[in-house]
Amino acid sequence: MVSSTPCRRGSNLKIKKCKSCETYTLKDACPSCGGQVVSPHPPKFSPHDPYGRYRRMMKKEALQRG
Ligand SMILES: [Zn+2]
């Protein structure tokens, strides 16, 4: 079965990504801009909100366009 997940794989590190500048880091804060970092691979998702990630993606795009 082929997954359509666009996420990259192959890392077992707890890498995180800055929500502001999308810099990848292992720290709890962005070393570039000091922004909040989030895991690009959430350990779990809400079955009650299957489209939450898409809403967040759209929200992120809106912020980038801002
Ligand atoms: Zn940043």
Layout of SSEs?
Layout: E1 16-18, E2 24-25, E3 37-38, H1 52-65
Antiparallel strand pairs: 1-2, 1-3
Strand content: 5-15%
Bound molecules: zinc ion
Low-confidence stretches: none
Helical proportion? 10-25%
Rg (CA only) = 13 Å
**Cα separation of the termini:** 38 Å
Q: Which structural class matches the secondary elements? A: alpha+beta
Q: Give the helices and strands as they follow along the chain.
A: EEEH
SS field, number of helical segments: 1
> What's the overall average pLDDT, rounded?
77
**How many strands, what sense, and barrel or not for the largest sheet?**
3 strands, antiparallel
Strand element count: 3
Shape: globular
Q: If strands are numbered along the chain, what order do they take across the biggest sheet?
A: 2-1-3
Keywords:
globular, 66 residues, 1 helix, binds zinc ion, 3 strands, alpha+beta, 3-stranded antiparallel β-sheet
Q: Any overview of this molecule?
A:
- It is a single chain.
- The chain has one helix at residues 52-65; strands spanning 16-18, 24-25, 37-38.
- With 66 residues, the protein is an alpha+beta fold.
- The protein has a domain at 12-41.
- Strands 2-1-3 form a 3-stranded antiparallel β-sheet, with no helix packed on it.
- The longest helix is centred in the last third of the chain and has 14 residues, at 52-65.
- The chain is globular and about 35 Å long.
- Residues 18, 20-21, 23, 30, 32-33, 35 line the site of zinc ion.
